Amino acid sequence: MTLSTRTLTPGTVYRTRPTDALLAFLSACDAAATDPHHRDEPLDLASAFHPADYRGVIGTLWRTRDNPEIAEAFYATVTWNGTRPPDTDATTLNHVLRRYRNSYPALPTHCGAHIHTGM
How far is CA 45 from CA 7, 13, 17, 56, 111, in A? Predict the structure, then answer.
């Protein structure tokens, strides 16, 4: 699902859930952060993907600029350059973020926000 002018809400995620979802990669937003007005609510946008049958979700804890370099490196690594279906693996995200951090040590906030939840 790609959005350009619509707002993505937990309800939208649940209603449009696909039957073969493995991974949601949410970049350039604070999708894994809770709403500051509802800190006692454990639901954030990233966690809404789990009841919609996604095995894994990558989100960010604070707003970041969209970084296609991280997403492209993640997908290339996790799918062995497209030769197998994605295996949502937090270790893969960790390796990608370490490589990015080592390449751009002056920009820690660009990769430090990413987290993986799920399997």
Answer: 11, 8, 14, 13, 19
| Percentage helix, strand, coil for the chain under 3-state DSSP, each rounded to 5 | 35, 10, 55
CA distances from 114 to 27, 29, 64, 83, 101 (A): 8, 10, 9, 25, 12
Structure confidence by residue, pLDDT tens digits, 37-89: 666 666 677 888 888 888 888 888 887 777 788 888 988 888 777 777 665 57
What residues contact residue 95 under an 8 Å CB cut-off, 6+ apart? Answer: 77
**Residue 38 has what DSSP assignment?**
G
Task: Give the list of residues 6+ apart from residue 53 with CB closer than 8 angstroms, or none.
Answer: 17, 18, 19, 21
Strands 114-118 and 23-25: unpaired
Quick one: pLDDT at residue 102?
93
Residue-level length of the chain: 119
